Amino acid sequence: MNASKLGIELVEGSFKQEYGFTLDQVSGLYQSACIPCGVFRRQLLNKMSNDLGVDKLATGHNLDDEIQSFLMSFAKADFRRFSKFGPKLDRIHPNLIPRIKPLWKLSEKDVGMWAVMNNVDVHFAECPYSHTSLRSKVKNYLNQLEGKRKGTKLSILESFSKTFKFEKKEINIGQCKLCNEPSSLNICKACEMVEDIKNRIK
Ligand code: SF4
Ligand SMILES: [Zn+2]
Q1: Which of 133, 134, 137 should be mutated for ligand 1, with most atoms under 8 A from CB?
Q2: How would you label 103-115 residue by residue, b for 16+ Cβ within 10 Å and e otherwise?
Q3: In this structure, is residue 176 part of a structural domain?
Q4: Which one of 41, 42, 129 would you pick to mutate in the ligand 1 pocket, going by the greatest count of ligand atoms within 8 A of its CB?
Q5: Which domain range does residue 92 map to?
Q6: Are 163 and 106 within one domain?
Q7: Distance, CA 182 to ligand 2 centroid (Å)?
Q8: Which of 26, 58, 65, 84 lies 20 to 30 Å (CA to CA) from residue 99?
Q9: Does 184 fall in a domain?
Q10: Sign of CA dihedral 59, 60, 64, 68
C-alpha cells in the first residue's frame, strides 16, 4: 500500500519460496529464531538485489539497531563486525550489494513518530521471536539508560564513531560452491544451514 502510494514497485521474497521452509518451521531448531532468520534474510536480500540489478541496498536500520549491534559485537570482541558499522558499506565483492542505512542516526522512537505524523501505514508489533534474542535484552537495557538520561543512545553512537577506526579493507571473499553467493567459506552459511535443516526436519 505504501509502495503503490509512492509509485514504487513492491518486490517480495520469502524463505518458503527460496529455501522451502518458513521461519516458524525451523525457529525451534536453534537457540534463537534470529540465528536462521539473520543468515537467510541477509542472503535473500542480496540475491534479490542482484536479480533486480540495483547498486545499493537501503535498509531501515536506525540508531537503536546500530548501537545494539555494536555493543553486542563489542561484548563478544567480534572485531570483524565493526566494519559493518556506519551509514554506508563499501562494495567488497562484485556480487555483494553494498548496504546503505539512511536512518542510522535517527532513534527508533523518532522514526516511529515521523511515520505516525505523516500518516505512513506501519505496524508497531514486535516480531514474536524478538524475546529469544540477546538483542532484545540489550535493547531493554539501552531503553532504561535512555529513560534515566536522555541522549545516552546518541552519545554511545558518537563515542563509537569517534573512537573506532572502521577500516574498509579488502577481505578475502570468494563464492559458495553450491549457490554462488559471496562467501568467505567454500560452502556459505546459508547452504550449510539448509543442509542441516533438511536433515533435522525430514
Ligand atoms: S527478531 Fe524476528 S525478525 Fe528480527 S532477527 Fe529475530 S526472528 Fe528475525
Ligand atoms: Zn551457498
Answers
A1: 133
A2: bbebbbeebeeee
A3: no
A4: 129
A5: 55-171
A6: yes
A7: 8
A8: 26
A9: no
A10: negative
